[in-house]
Amino acid sequence: MSTPGADQAPEVVDVLVVGFGIAGACAAISAAEAGASVLVVERASHPGGSSALSGGEVYLGGGTSVQEACGFEDSPESMFAFLRAALGPHADEEKLRLYCDDSADHFGWLVDHGVEFRPSLYDAPTWMPPTTDGLMWLGENSWPFDTLATPAPRGHRPPAPFFAGKVLMDALVAAAQAAGVRTLVDTRATSLVAEDGRVAGVRVRQYGSERVLRARRGVVLTTGGFVDNEQMLADHAPALVGHAKVSDGLDDGSGIRMAQDVGAATRRMHAHEVALTFLPALAARGILVNALGQRFVNEDTYPGTVSHAAVSHQPAPYWVIADETCFEEIPDGDLWGVRPTHAAETLAELEQDLGMPAGSLEATVTAYNRFAEQGEDPYFHKASQWLRPLTAPYAAVDVAAGFNPGGRDSAAGGTGVAGFTLGGLHTTPDGSVLSLSGNPVPGLFAAGRTTSGIHGDGYISGTSLGDGSYFGRRAGRAAASGSA
C-alpha cells in the first residue's frame, strides 16, 4: 500500500479514517466504494494494529458457506440467542440483531475482499487452533448455551495456525489499496478540528511537524480501546489494572479522549475481556479449581467464559488438575509448552503442596470421579465426551505460569491474566458518535474498540473483529454520505 510522506498526502479528502486496524480498514474500503476519497492516518509504521496481532477469528454465522460445507445448519435467530447470552448481561441488542441478521452477507463481503476461510472444522476446545482449519467452536456446543439454541460453530479463521490476525489484515489492507484508499503512517492524530458545530478534520503530528488534515464529509475514529492507558483503566476498568494487556501497545484511548473533547458521550467503559492463561485442551480433560480446591465452571466451554468465571468470582491462584492420561492425549504441538508445576502420588499430598485446605481437593476429585464414571457432571454440565475419572499420580499446572502458543510467549505478566477494554464512544448502529445530550456529533463517526459495540459484560473470541469489521463498514458508508 502507498504510504505517502507528509508532503505527498492530500490536505483535504472526503473521509478521514484515524487508525488502521480492522475497523479502520473496513470503514476505509466502504467509504471508497461509496465514491469518497479516503485517507487513513495510522500512528504506527504499518497498518494492522491490534487486529494483526490477534488470533484472527471473526465471529460469523447465520448460514455461511463454510458452516454448510462442514455440515452445520445455522440461522440469525440461533446466532442471536447464543450471543445475547454469551455477551451479556447488557449486550446491545439493537446492534447485535443487525450484526446477526447481516452476518452471512458480511461473511460474503469479507470473502469478496480477499479473506479466505477454509471449509474445515477444528473440533476441540482451544483459544486458537494450531491448524489452518477455517471454522472453530467458541462455546456454542457447551452448557448452558446448547440449551438456548441449536449449536453451530461460528469462529471463522483465515488459514494460519495459532495467530491468524496478520493474514486477515494483509487481505483487508490489500483490498483498501485496490479501492484507492491512501494511508499516512507514523502519524499521530492529536485532536479533532471542529468548525461551525461540525467535525471538519484532524490535527496530526508526523516527524515533529504538525498540520491539519480536513474532511469534507466525515471523520471516522478507529483507534482501538484504552487498555494501554493506566489512568483510564484506573478510572473506568480497574479490574484490568495490574494484568497483562492484549494490544499492540498503542490502545491508549486517544480516539475516545479526542471525541470527548468535542462533547462525545461514552458508554459501558467498565466492560472488558479477560483471558486466563490456562490450556483449554488440558482443562477439558481434567478439572480447573480455585485456591480452595473447588471446581466452579464447566471446563469445556469457551475459554473466555472460564476466565471471567475465575477472575471475577473465584479466589486465586487457579490450578488445572490432571493425570498422565490427560497429557498423553494431547499432541505435543497442542501443549503450548505447558508442563506440570506440581505432582504427587496422592491428592492429600498435592493439596498440601498447593496450600489448599485439608481434604478440599480430595473431596472435589472424589465427587468428579464418581460422576465421571456415570458419564455425567451434574454440578457444571461438562459434556460427557470429556469426562473420565482422574487417577494417580496427579499433576497440577499453575495457570499463572503461562504458555507459548505458536512460540509466542503468553505468560501474562505474572498474574496469569491478560485483557482489553470493550467500552468506548456511544454510537448509533451506523457509527455516528453521540453527544452527551444523545444527538449525533456532526461529521464524527467511530467503530471498533473505540466504541461501545455489541458487547455487554461478556465476550466471545471473534466478536471484536466481527463487530469492528461490520460496524466499520457501516460507519464508512455513513461518513461517505455525510449523513451525520
Distance between the termini: 29 Å
The number of helical runs is 15
Largest sheet: 8 strands, mixed
Radius of gyration: 23 Å
* Proportion of beta-strand residues: 15-25%
List the domain count as a whole number: 2
Return the structural class. Answer: alpha/beta
Give the fraction of residues assigned to helices: 25-40%
In the CATH hierarchy, what is the class of the largest domain? Alpha Beta
- The overall strand count is 21
Question: What is the overall silhouette?
Answer: elongated
CATH fold-level label of the largest domain: FAD/NAD(P)-binding domain
CATH architecture of the largest domain: 3-Layer(bba) Sandwich
What is the mean predicted local confidence, pLDDT? 95
Instruction: Look at the structure and name the CATH superfamily of the largest domain.
Output: FAD/NAD(P)-binding domain
Uncertain regions spanning at least 5 consecutive residues:
1-7
Fold and architecture overview:
A hairpin with a 2-residue loop joins strand 9 (198-206) and strand 10. Helix 1 packs parallel to helix 15, helix 4 runs antiparallel to helix 5 (93-101) and helix 13 crosses helix 14. The protein is 30% helix and 19% strand. The strands form five sheets. Strands 1, 2, 7, 8, 9, 10, 20 and 21 form an eight-stranded mixed β-sheet that branches. Strands 3-6-5-4 form a four-stranded mixed β-sheet. A four-stranded antiparallel β-sheet has the order 14-15-17-16. The chain is an alpha/beta fold and 484 residues long. It is elongated. Residues 1-7 have low confidence and may be disordered. The longest helix is centred in the C-terminal third of the chain and has 19 residues, at 463-481.
